[in-house]
Specification:
With about 180 residues, the chain is an all-alpha fold. It has one domain. It has nine helices and no strands. It is found in: Cell membrane. It is a multi-pass membrane protein. It holds the Pfam family VTT_dom.
């Protein structure tokens, strides 16, 4: 019995066919780059790994590969946004249509970063709905880029692993 605990209805049909092709891992990497840079608008980030598991395969080696690609892709995407924020500034980022936050909401994430420091990067990357939103405050701070990459990767690893576990074991738990 193949477990499908998460609904994949929001996955675009064209994306399903790409995930089923020989380019599946390249497509996954590209999606994760977009997600990390906050440019993934056509599907929720919470569906990327489960969709990949459902459409590429959910064996343990494939699941580990999918999680690894997702972590590397999202970390690189976030690092690109981190560098963009560092070099262009807050006003530039907030004025862009692709950036998902208003000035007031970004103020809240600035306060989170000020309160919790660099560890907030890893913590926020693990949480639904705020995933990656501390990338811009981190980029605007004096945070070392190596520390950012490490903490971003740790948070992404926990997020992607949780999604994979929910997908892989959720079907079995629902069957009980």
């Amino acid at each position: 019995m193949q477990p499908y605990p998460l609904q994949l209805e929001k996955t675009p049909t064209w994306l399903e066919s790409l995930f089923a092709s020989d380019l599946a891992f390249v497509v996954l990497f590209g999606l994760c780059l977009l997600e990390g840079a906050m440019l993934l608008r056509f599907m929720p980030s919470e569906l990327v790994v489960p969709a990949a598991l459902a459409l590429i395969g959910s064996s343990i080696p494939k699941a580990l590969t999918i999680v690894g690609i997702a972590v590397v892709g999202t970390t690189i995407g976030q690092f690109c946004l981190f560098i963009l924020a560092r070099h262009t500034g807050r006003d530039y980022i907030v004025q862009k249509r692709w950036f998902p936050l208003t000035e007031s909401r970004l103020d809240r994430f600035d306060a989170w970063f000020d309160r919790w420091g660099a560890l907030a990067v890893a913590g926020s990357n693990t949480l639904l709905f705020v995933r990656g939103l501390l990338t811009v405050p981190a980029g605007l701070s004096e945070m070392d880029s190596r520390s950012f990459v490490l903490l971003s990767a740790i948070g992404s690893l926990s997020f992607q692993t949780i999604l994979a576990i929910l997908y892989l074991f959720g079907g079995y738990l629902l069957a009980l």
